[in-house]
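# nightly structure sweep
# worker-07 picked up a monomer target from the shared queue
# config: single-sequence mode, recycle default, output format = structure tokens
# input follows
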Amino acid sequence: MNNLNDNLKKALNLFNSRKYDDAKLILLALIKDLNVDKKVYFLLYEIFIKLNEGQNAKKYLKKFIELDNKNHIGLNNLANIYLKERKTDKAEKLYLRAVESKQDYLTGIINLAVFYQGMGDNKSAKKFYEKGLNLSPKKLGIYYNLNKIDNDFINEEKIKYISELLKSEKLDPFDMASGYFLLAENQKKKKNISNEMEHLKTAHEHSFQHKLSYNKQSLHYWMNVVPRKYEKFNFINNDKIKNELMDMEPIFIIGLPRSGSTIVESILSSGTTKIIGLGETNIINWSIINSNRQILEDQKSVILDIGAISSKLLTGLGNLDILNKKNIIFTEKSLENFFYIDVILKIFPKAKFINTFRNTEDNIYAIFQQFLSNISWTHSFENILNYVDNYLKAISFFKKKHPGKIFSLNLEELTNSQEEVSKKMYNFCNLEWNIKALEFYNRKDLFSNTASNTQIRKNIEKYDSEKYKPYKELLKKFSHRYHWINTE
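# output follows
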């Protein structure tokens, strides 16, 4: 027993030192003992998560839960894995078991609320958000999410409470950001644009601080690295691309946030042909960076090992439980993939791209008004404009280079002519169109964790071209820097 404990401690020290492969070898030897401590299985799960081997992580987490079937953390984490695999029924049951095992488990309660919100079950989402508020009444992130599903939740009394809380309490940056976004929304309803913008600016500052180190690295990458290199990618090991990937026919939805991408993915995955909507996996970017670290170096051109990228992609798709399905078509909507069109076409020569777009100025305001906490460049007006400028240049470049691979879909045209535009999109993707594709909002299995998850629960609304006219003045001072800005 002492030897077992010593080896477990040694493995834990290696794990904490990020020597995951060394720790893994010790633990795999330990599980040959029939009386192995359940902690070994949980640590193996954590190691395989770090190594991004999702199926092995799931296997050992399930072993851990077999030995401790009321462990709320294990149940919650397994639910997270099943949700990534789009197995929503299993995820729901496990989230429920987690909060039943520990009724004051705030993380599990919030995850369950977010799950129901993503499924469009606002009644259940509200129930668990309110349960979370009872446990943590100053958690303004919960207030923000409740406001998304209940327009009557925030009243003047709550606005006063939030304002006082922001002034008197030392809240974490995420809750600070949530509070200021709510104050901004309140000023928006009152049509006080000046105050709204001030609150939004403060909200974004706190949001950037929430994951400061990550946001700094991410901002540098998307502003200063990729925009300088996407035209100059060169490739080696083209003959080592995995055949399983080359035969696939994925559809990549690209563009800017708040441009209709979630609606488009919902339409594509609701037709006659079985299509799996993966959402925003970041799988392309992850595969490139983790197999070609030189892309981060300060040089204009990069030689990418395309064989290594395809190997990473194979692992990533395996973690998403895609590879064991035959003749699979999937959509992926990590919108920044417009920078990686050449890379994607090397690996998926049959891939197609749907570029969603709308009035550019409208899009900028819509991004700034939204709490997109995981997108580093959305937290300042200047960064948004810079990113949009790079997007416009990149999409123009690739439309000329690969004209038959990119279908540009105007959100306003889609909302005004749903059948006509969706048929054109289906035809471009070589898919059989069916009117059911436009009835996506009736689906019970449609999950979305994006900012548009409330919009896809109802019929497509007409584009409101007047909505952002009161904000036009805000862009005038930038018009000399960006020729595409139209403030008329």
